[in-house]
């Protein structure tokens, strides 16, 4: 049984075959690169005594982010989950409203809808892009539908054109969950600039990181202004400690924003690195007949390959979980694709298995590989070698 | 009219009388002191490449906090508001429950109750301590009452003994909002160790800061364990991406926790400084008959004087707001006491003005003075001199 065989790694974690090359560390699925101006800017925060959510880096981070995103107004927040919540509340989504969301996404997407009191409606995904299927959206629309939440999964841009048309025809809002897709393009424009609002995550495993962090970008100035107040406890900007609304504390610190600014300076470099890594994976993994590789890019589209993800064919002699176990035993961290939301206790009522078969299939067979920009080419080759050995 | 007279400060912000001493900066109501190990620990995070909510400083910060708080289990979170929300959810408080909360507090206290779907019930405060009045609590209890939320305002410990007795008699939970009272003692023990759960804030103006940040401490191990899962998206600790509950992202970064650890090392020093400053204010301001100074300490109690706060008597020749304006014109930042919650649009339905008269009176007349541990004695004296000049 191949799963139990750990052929190349000794007890001490030294690669036997590769021992002459170097010792390997455990290869993690994601790790940030903090070798630019991060330390300098953080040091500046501490030396100038400005570390809270007040301070110049917050504004600079927002400005840089806005500039990259076609001038959409940007608000930095504590993370990608509260970004979604703030976006929904600022658009006025709440009890009585329905929001259409893909069944295959990280739970934060649906949780944010539930926080507002709105009802999520789970849509199946496209078999090839693994993103929400526009044809399915159309069928799920009811008089209560208020918004569509496309999620650009693993960096793959959603097919926004039909979604925009559906939203236009039915007068629906679009909330793009771009947590995993900073730097991805669609029709030659950054994802996040197709909806009324879009959100991003800067957790430690994301394309750029602030440790934890998030951003909301707004098409509409009024929604942006409202969100700015909601982010700061709903406190009036002119009358101290006066609250006209129930707000939140979703502020990002100057300290984290300082790192964000340094990371934005290197964003293109990170996306290039991830795309290079994805290219290497594609080149090697195509050699096995057991895998379905990520969908190629349409004209004008660009996949930022946040995490390089592929499927193990249902009829292959080993399962996705066996492959994960084999890789782990070889010191290589990987991730399964998310569970279909409708299978988990808090979400079962929002979708029917019979209508979510593609989500189910992809969830069972999908695996994400190490994709950090600090990965070395040699490490990627080692990972591929291990996978091909296992699949042979 | 004294308010319009700006006698001592020139256009350039140079104190005329004091010009020979030094230029003054604008004196802010709070500013952190980051001159200890903050930079060293943050640098360590970046150099070791661990800045997210994973990393050793988060655990160390929690351990130090727990140790200070009689071994209550501690969870670091993104800020003091989400700390309250997490505490309430972990205790199972939600729709159909009533929570008794003082009318005189920062809005985050009541907002957190509203997030859970529970109903806040506003209690009047004690005329002298400005904290929730235990006798009033008793009168507000109904069969739906689930918890009491005492808030230790401005560092003044609440009178916990009667609250504990009431809670015991009626089988109620106690949630201490200690956002403003780290380092305060009651019956010789730290506030936060009298309830089922307690929360703290580490915003830039707090006794210790992490920029933004918060902590929840639990008496009960099971509530702590539940909260740890809820803090991390409700994700199972053993089955990756599996969610048994709707959770949140309330994680604190390693970066912020690193600062928290350095701040904890100096917490006693900060509290000592704040108490010295309060002593100076008391000594000087007692010279005017127009003020009501903060309540003295009972045996075993210690006020950490987060912000030194006093009242302008209702019959004095000037109002609190006039004093604030005069101080601002002299380069001295101050803060009004919070508005009574029941006066603001989102909260009017949770209390009646006729039953909240002490809250109303204190709110109108209370003012908080600069209380940062980095204030110089000379600055405190200057502030007092200005106030006494104005009040003369
Ligand atoms: C579609 C969508 N919508 C919304 C959100 C919500 O965003 P947010 O988490 O609220 O910001 C998200 C974010 N989902 C993330 C969440 O942030 C979640 O917490 C995360 O789950 P995970 O796979 O369990 O993540 P992990 O194991 O904690 O970290 C992944 C790898 O990154 C490494 N890593 C994380 N932080 C650091 C760090 O500071 N340093 C180093 N060296 N490595 C780090 C870890 O060691 C792992 O190897 O991954 C999920 C996919 C999303 O995907
Ligand atoms: C009873 C109670 N319960 C819950 C909470 C919620 O906690 P949290 O805010 O979610 O962590 C709180 C926290 N309430 C705070 C909130 O954190 C709120 O945001 C804050 O309102 P504010 O008075 O408008 O605060 P500010 O003007 O933003 O900051 C106060 C001073 O501190 C200074 N300051 C803040 N951060 C920094 C910094 O990084 N550097 C320097 N030098 N000064 C700083 C500012 O310049 C001001 O002079 O003060 C309120 C009293 C609470 O009091």
UniProtKB/TrEMBL annotation, chains A, B:
Coiled coil: none annotated. It comes from the Bacteria. GO terms for molecular function: GDP-4-dehydro-6-deoxy-D-mannose-4-aminotransferase activity; pyridoxal phosphate binding. Belongs to the DegT/DnrJ/EryC1 family. Its EC number is 2.6.1.102. Keywords: Aminotransferase, CBS domain, Pyridoxal phosphate, Transferase. GO terms for biological process: polysaccharide biosynthetic process. The chain holds residues 87 to 478 of 483 of the full protein. It comes from Cryomorpha ignava. This is GDP-perosamine synthase. It catalyses: GDP-alpha-D-perosamine + 2-oxoglutarate = GDP-4-dehydro-alpha-D-rhamnose + L-glutamate. Its cofactor is pyridoxal 5'-phosphate. Pathway: Bacterial outer membrane biogenesis; LPS O-antigen biosynthesis.
């Amino acid at each position: 049984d191949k799963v139990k065989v750990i052929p190349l790694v000794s007890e001490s974690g030294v690669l036997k075959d590769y021992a002459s090359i170097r010792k390997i560390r455990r290869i993690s699925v994601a790790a940030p690169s903090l070798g630019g101006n991060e330390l300098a800017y953080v040091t500046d925060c501490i030396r100038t005594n400005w570390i809270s959510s007040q301070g110049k880096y917050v504004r600079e981070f927002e400005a840089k982010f806005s500039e990259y995103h076609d001038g959409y107004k940007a608000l930095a927040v504590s993370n990608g989950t509260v970004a979604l919540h703030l976006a929904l509340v600022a658009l006025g989504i709440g009890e009585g409203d329905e929001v259409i969301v893909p069944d295959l996404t990280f739970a934060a997407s649906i949780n944010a809808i539930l926080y507002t009191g709105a009802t999520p409606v789970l849509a199946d995904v496209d078999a090839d892009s693994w993103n929400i299927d526009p044809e399915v959206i159309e069928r799920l629309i009811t008089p209560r539908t208020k918004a569509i939440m496309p999620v650009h999964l693993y960096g793959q841009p959603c097919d926004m054109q039909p979604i925009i048309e559906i939203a236009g025809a039915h007068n629906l809002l679009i909330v793009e969950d771009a947590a995993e897709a900073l730097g991805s393009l669609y029709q030659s424009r950054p994802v996040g600039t197709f909806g009324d609002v879009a959100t991003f995550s800067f957790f430690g495993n994301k394309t750029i990181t602030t440790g934890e962090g998030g951003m909301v970008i707004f098409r509409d100035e009024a929604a942006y202004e409202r969100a700015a107040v909601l982010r700061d406890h709903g406190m009036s900007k002119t009358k101290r400690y006066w609250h006209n609304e129930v707000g939140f504390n979703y502020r990002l610190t100057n300290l984290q924003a300082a790192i964000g600014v340094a990371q934005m300076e290197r964003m293109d470099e990170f996306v290039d690195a991830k795309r290079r890594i994805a290219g290497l994976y594609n080149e090697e993994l195509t050699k096995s007949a057991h895998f379905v590789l990520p969908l190629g890019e349409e004209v004008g589209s660009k996949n930022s390959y946040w995490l390089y993800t592929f499927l193990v064919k249902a009829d292959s002699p080993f399962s996705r979980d066996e492959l994960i176990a084999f890789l782990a035993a070889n010191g290589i961290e990987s991730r399964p694709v998310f569970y279909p939301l409708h299978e988990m206790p808090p979400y079962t009522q929002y979708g029917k298995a019979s209508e979510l078969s593609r989500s189910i299939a992809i969830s069972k067979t999908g695996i994400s590989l190490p994709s950090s920009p600090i990965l070395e080419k040699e490490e990627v080759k080692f990972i591929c070698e291990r996978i091909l050995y296992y699949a042979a």
